[in-house]
């Protein structure tokens, strides 16, 4: 919401408010505070109309500003399809002030009937939650940028309760998948993503990094046994241990870009086809139950089996609140490195003793 203050100057009440960071100070010409409050609302609305036109700020205006804000963030590409979907439903010319909680409820029903891009059937409840989260964030940012003065229309929408997922790779599956990915890589020809996928899979299974983080790794990210990765949410940097054997394997990749993986697109769906091909080549049973993101859970499970504390696992996977993470970092960095070294990947041969 737009913050405003009303104050008295020479017996006349004035209003002060901000729109997109610019301060406005205007006289209400009222000597009565109650009338001044009403006049202040009219002044703010008229100022909005003057800046953005008589049709007020539209969803299209907000999306343009949001694109400019988010396009350099790692999570940006994963949100593009969701933003495109909400524009199709709400329409870009719709004024933000016209979007109500009832409209959002209708949007949920629309999403329930929408077909999934990545698998057969309709969107599941977890996916619908992701769409709602993007819409909610858009309106939160609109309030922060003082483009929207009402309560967030998503605030009263109840998100679906998500069932915990317990699927992880077995040791046998790890060997089968790594071997399949290596075979595909060796026969990739000019197909970059097929060539790179073996290395992407090895990094995922040896560090627990998210796919988006892996695709955005730069050669300069590596320093003395760690990947230094900037985090969007807290604008901080996390240090992820990387085994010497894994980094030596990465050095066999031609360095044709500042990024380790020289790809035009860095969204998570870039691996969709090669991941499916890898599971088929590996002859994984019920391949539809196995997701690439399960590599993170797999690393967590293997570290716990190896005897490392939940605190170490949370730190490696980046699940902790950053303030808590910073508190533990000085005392467990060396143990993190030791924990990563304990993960035995068949594709790399036996771990050094």
The global form is elongated
Radius of gyration: 25 Å
Task: Summarize the amount of helix as a percent range.
Answer: 40-55%
Oligomer category: single chain
Walkthrough of the structure:
This protein is mainly alpha-helical. It folds into 3 domains: 4-52; 59-144; 171-348, Orthogonal Bundle (hpI Integrase, Chain A). 49% of the residues lie in helices and 10% in strands. It is built from 13 helices and 6 strands. It has helices at 33-52, 59-70, 76-90, 101-113, 125-144, 171-186, 192-207, 211-215, 244-250, 272-281, 294-305, 310-317, 322-341, and strands at residues 4-9, 12-19, 22-30, 222-223, 226-231, 236-241. The strands form 2 sheets. It has a 3-stranded antiparallel sheet with strand order 1-2-3. Strands 4-5-6 form a 3-stranded antiparallel sheet. α6 (171-186) runs antiparallel to α7 and α12 packs across α13. The N and C termini lie far apart (60 Å).
Keywords for this structure?
hpI Integrase, Chain A; three-stranded antiparallel beta sheet; single chain; mainly alpha; 3 domains
Question: Briefly, what is this?
Answer:
The chain is mostly helical and 353 residues long. It is built from 13 helices and 6 strands.
Write the layout of secondary structure elements.
Elements: E1 4-9, E2 12-19, E3 22-30, H1 33-52, H2 59-70, H3 76-90, H4 101-113, H5 125-144, H6 171-186, H7 192-207, H8 211-215, E4 222-223, E5 226-231, E6 236-241, H9 244-250, H10 272-281, H11 294-305, H12 310-317, H13 322-341
Antiparallel strand pairs: 1-2, 2-3, 4-5, 5-6
């Amino acid at each position: 919401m737009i913050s405003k203050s009303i104050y008295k100057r020479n017996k006349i009440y004035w209003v002060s408010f901000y729109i997109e960071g610019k301060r406005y100070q205007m006289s209400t010409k009222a000597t009565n505070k109650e009338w001044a409050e009403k006049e202040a609302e009219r002044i703010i609305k008229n100022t909005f109309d003057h800046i953005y036109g008589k049709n007020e700020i539209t969803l299209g205006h907000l999306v343009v500003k949001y694109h400019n804000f988010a396009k350099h963030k790692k999570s940006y590409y994963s949100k593009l399809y969701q933003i495109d979907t909400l524009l199709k439903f709400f329409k870009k010319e719709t004024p933000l002030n016209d979007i109500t909680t009832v409209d959002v409820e209708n949007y949920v029903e629309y999403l329930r009937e929408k077909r999934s891009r990545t698998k057969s059937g309709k969107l599941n409840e977890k996916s619908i939650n992701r769409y709602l989260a993007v819409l909610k964030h858009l309106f939160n940012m609109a309030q922060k940028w003082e483009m929207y003065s009402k309560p967030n229309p998503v605030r009263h929408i109840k998100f679906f309760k998500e069932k915990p997922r317990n699927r992880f790779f077995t040791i046998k599956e790890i060997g089968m998948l790594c071997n399949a990915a290596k075979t595909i890589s060796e026969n990739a020809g000019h197909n970059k993503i097929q060539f790179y996928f073996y290395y992407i899979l090895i990094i995922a299974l040896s560090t627990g990094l998210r796919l988006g983080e892996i695709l955005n790794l730069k050669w300069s990210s590596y320093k003395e046994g760690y990947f230094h990765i900037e985090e969007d949410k807290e604008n901080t940097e996390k240090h992820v241990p990387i085994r010497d054997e894994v980094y030596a394997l990465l050095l066999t990749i031609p360095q044709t870009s500042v990024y380790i993986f020289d790809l035009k697109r860095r969204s998570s769906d870039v691996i969709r086809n090669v991941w499916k091909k890898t599971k088929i080549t590996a002859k994984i049973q019920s391949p539809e139950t196995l997701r690439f993101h399960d590599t993170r859970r797999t690393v967590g499970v293997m570290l716990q089996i190896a005897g490392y504390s939940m605190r170490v696992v949370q730190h490696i996977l980046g699940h902790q609140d950053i303030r808590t993470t910073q508190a533990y970092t000085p005392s467990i960095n060396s143990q993190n490195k030791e924990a990563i070294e304990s993960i035995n990947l068949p594709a790399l041969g036996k771990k050094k003793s």
